[in-house]
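Regression check, manganese (II) ion case 337:
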Amino acid sequence: MIIIMKPGASPEAVGRVTGVIEEKGLQVHLSQGHQVTIIGVVGDKSLLEGVNFEVSEGVERVVPVTESYKLANRKFHPENSAVPAGNTVIGPGTLTVMAGPCAVESREQLLETAFAVKKAGASFLRGGAYKPRTSPYSFQGLEEEGLKYMKEAREATGLGVICEVTSEHAIEKAVKYVDMLQIGARNMQNFELLKEAGRAGLPVLLKRGLSATIDEWLNAAEYIMAEGNPNVTLCERGIRTFETATRNTLDISAVPVLRSRTHLPIILDPSHATGVRDYVEPLAKAAIAAGADGLMIEVHPDPARALSDGPQSLTFDQFEGLMGRLKPYAKLEGRNF
Ligand code: PEP
Ligand code: MN
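Current build output:
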């Protein structure tokens, strides 16, 4: 439930309400707006049986929260969240562009790409060091060596760096080298991994599962947040449907739907959503128009030779051209990059 305080309710009145909640062994989640304070209650609400907050001084009304996710819920936190990550803040007013290769393949490949995406205006370098591949015989990633190159690229360019983590072991390694952890589509409901990511002390980009509903996705975010990490960003990357013309089907409606249900920032990945280089630009524009807070785009120095996801990767020139054309769209939506 959430308890909405009257405008200008005194700190003592707020304290009396939060005191009762904590006394009963539940958690308080306080959202202090300009005018109104909202008190979110997290935990087993049966412990509050018999307590009537409505009669407490300063309380305007009590609203039940029927959704199973609470911390991620917009009802708990009516204003859009801003997630500090790397050298930027993901959220309102900004279009955060994360770009780079699908996989870190070599030091040269990564550094070259880092300088190119930086020059084009990206604020994050992406690159997988632990690759969740469909076939066990496909390139699996450079692991810690790849993470070291990510860190080197960060130091050389000043870009934030983000890497997918596929296990607890990968998290332990990654926290030493990167600014943000990525949980990939295939692990969206790996609950132990989500909890570990929640405890890692870095912001987390949570991709939507291959066939996950928005409700399941927000509950996955809740797993991370329930460990005390509020810095979660969601990434729509297409879902499985009957359509085979594209690798996945981009659920563009996820952007406004999420916007109505959660305060967390939303990033869109047109590369994995389509699997086709030529479709990246129209969907990147659509993402901005739909209100996304950022984009994740795969870029490779030589896509024809990429060890993974070459067909959807842009060349440096293509990426630079795209970024130039996205600028007016971002401006129209009140976002800078
Ligand atoms: C990736 O971003 O490298 C990736 C594997 O994406 P997804 O988890 O969305 O398939
Ligand atoms: Mn990829």
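Comparison notes: The domain at 2-63 is CATH 3.30.70.1140 (Alpha-Beta Plaits). Residues 102, 272, 298, 308-309 surround manganese (II) ion (ligand 2) (CB under 6 Å). No diff flagged against the previous build.
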